[in-house]
């Protein structure tokens, strides 16, 4: 540990009477000022007048609400336990998928891509119709065998199409939710700015749909009766 106390490089003699209110004239002088300020700091500092109640209370992380999101109605607000369960379940699913992907890429697991004819990546309506089985005999199911045939740009683009579809329809049906959830699981990090913007848009429209849900209106109507 003594080697950590040795200076990395020599800075020469230090004038402790230097005027610290003036800007340093060189990099060497700046380092000398840092040394002087460090020498003026006490080795041990004891906080005074600490409120004991603040110490005993657990700290809470603060997350700034996303702009544009509608606050959940009181009767539809998710509990903390529910949120923690969903986050844990989603994280385990992503970990499982990442492990499968790594095993396939390193040839530790045998997997052959299915013979799937995918539309042009820029054809939004065809993608939505194919995934949801609208006006077509063909239909893609959001299975791992299907999603492993998608490269990451395709996953990001199809997710953006579904977010736009939900913003237009103002509702999320079961088959739409399955696709969105699976695409979220397949996202790889780090996320690019466009994908981050897409996720924020998804959060906003989901909050609006929740606030305007028929279930909440029925519950609220029942309580008022």
Q: Give the topology string: H per helix, E per strand.
A: HHHHHHHHH
Looking at CATH, which topology of the domain at 115-223 would you report? Methane Monooxygenase Hydroxylase, Chain G, domain 1
What would the principal axes of the Cα set say about the shape? elongated
Number of H/I helices? 9
Low-confidence stretches: 221-225
Alpha-carbon distance between the two ends: 74 Å
Q: Name the structural class.
A: mainly alpha
CATH architecture of the domain at 115-223, by name, is Up-down Bundle
Strand residue content = under 5%
Output mean pLDDT: 83
Considering DSSP H and I runs of 4 or more, what fraction of the residues is helical?
Answer: 40-55%
Biggest sheet details: none
- The value of Rg in angstroms is 28 Å
What is the CATH C level class of the domain at 115-223, in words? Mainly Alpha
Secondary structure tally: strands: 0
Short synopsis of the structure:
The protein has 225 residues and is mostly helical. The protein contains nine helices and no strands. Belongs to the gemin-2 family.
Provide structural commentary.
The protein has 225 residues and is an all-alpha fold. Among the domains are: 78-111; 115-223, Methane Monooxygenase Hydroxylase, Chain G, domain 1. It has helices spanning 27-39, 52-56, 80-105, 124-132, 144-147, 152-169, 174-186, 193-211, 214-224. α4 packs across α6, α6 runs antiparallel to α7 and α6 (152-169) runs parallel beside α8 (193-211). The radius of gyration is 28 Å and the shape is elongated. Mean pLDDT is 83; it is low at 221-225. InterPro entries: GEMIN2 (IPR017364), Gemin2/Brr1 (IPR035426). One of its GO terms (cellular component) is SMN complex. This is Gem-associated protein 2. It is found in: Cytoplasm.
């Amino acid at each position: 540990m003594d080697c950590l106390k040795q200076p990395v490089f020599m800075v020469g003699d230090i004038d402790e009477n230097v005027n610290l209110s003036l800007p340093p004239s060189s990099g060497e002088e700046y380092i000398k000022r840092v040394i002087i300020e460090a020498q003026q700091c006490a080795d041990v500092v004891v906080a005074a007048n600490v409120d004991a109640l603040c110490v005993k209370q657990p700290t809470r992380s603060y997350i700034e609400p996303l702009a544009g999101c509608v606050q959940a109605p009181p009767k539809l607000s998710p509990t903390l336990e529910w949120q923690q369960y969903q986050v844990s379940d989603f994280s385990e699913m992503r970990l499982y998928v990442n492990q499968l992907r790594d095993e396939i890429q390193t040839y530790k697991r045998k997997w052959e891509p299915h013979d799937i004819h995918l539309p042009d990546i820029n054809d939004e309506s065809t993608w939505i119709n194919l995934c949801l089985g609208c006006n077509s005999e063909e239909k893609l199911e959001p299975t791992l065998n299907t999603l492993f045939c998608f490269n990451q740009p395709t996953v990001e683009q199809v997710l953006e199409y579904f977010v736009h579809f939900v913003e237009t329809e103002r509702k999320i049906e079961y088959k739409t939710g399955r696709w969105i959830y699976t695409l979220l699981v397949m996202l790889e990090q780090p996320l690019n700015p466009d994908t981050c913007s897409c996720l924020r848009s998804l959060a906003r429209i989901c909050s609006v749909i929740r606030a305007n849900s028929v279930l909440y209106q029925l519950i609220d109507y029942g309580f008022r009766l």
